[in-house]
User: Fold this.
Amino acid sequence: MSPNSKLAHWVVWGGLAVVILAIVFAFVREQSGEPKTHLAKPELPVLSQLSDFRLTNQLANPVGLGNFKGKVWFADIIFTRCAGPCPAMTRRMAELKEHFVGEPDVVFATLTTDPDHDTPEIMHRFAKRFGAFHEEDRRQEDHRWQFLTGSKQEIVRLAVDGMKLIAREKSPGEQASPDDLFIHATLFVVIDRQGRLRGVLESMEDGWKEKAIALATKLLNE
Assistant:
C-alpha cells in the first residue's frame, strides 16, 4: 500500500472513531442528565386557598391561620361523641404525628362538627384518650396538634368551604343511636406552607399512611 493510501486509510478510520465517540458521549450525557420534562412527576394541584379563621384549641387558646404559617399540616374533622370512625381517625393521625416527631414543620389540626358539646376541655380529654399526646407533650400541645372548636359558622367556613370536607348534622330520623349525630368525611387533608389545600386521602383505606407521608414529604421539599 502506498504512503498516500495509508494516510487516506487512517484519516477515514480516524474520522469514524471521532464520530462514534461523539455519539457515545452524547448518549451518556443524555442518560445522566436531568429527567425529561414529560417524565417528571406532576406537581400537586392547588385545590383551594384557606382564608383566616378564629377558633379555640384544647387549651382554650385562640388559633388562626397564622399559627400554621410556614408549616405543612394535616387536618380532619370528628366529634367526640362519635361511635363510628372518629377514634380510629384520631389514632391514625397520632401515628402520623409520631412518624414526624423529629420534623417541626409538620403539624396537625382536628376540627369538631359538634362545637356545642365539644368544649376545649372535652376536646382535650378526647385527644389524650386516643393517643394524640401525653402529659410530657404538654409544652408542645399548643403548636404541634390543635383540636379546634368554636362557632359553627367558623367551623363550616374552614372545614367545608376551605378544606372541602363533608360535615352535616343528621336529622332525628337518620340517627341509628343517640350519639349518631353527624355525617362527616373520614378524609385527611394536607395544607401547604402558604395555607393552600394540596392533597386529600382516605384515612380508613389500606396504604393511607404511606400516601400521607409521601404527600407531606413532597410539600416539605417544595
Residues 21 and 27 are 10 Å apart (CA to CA).
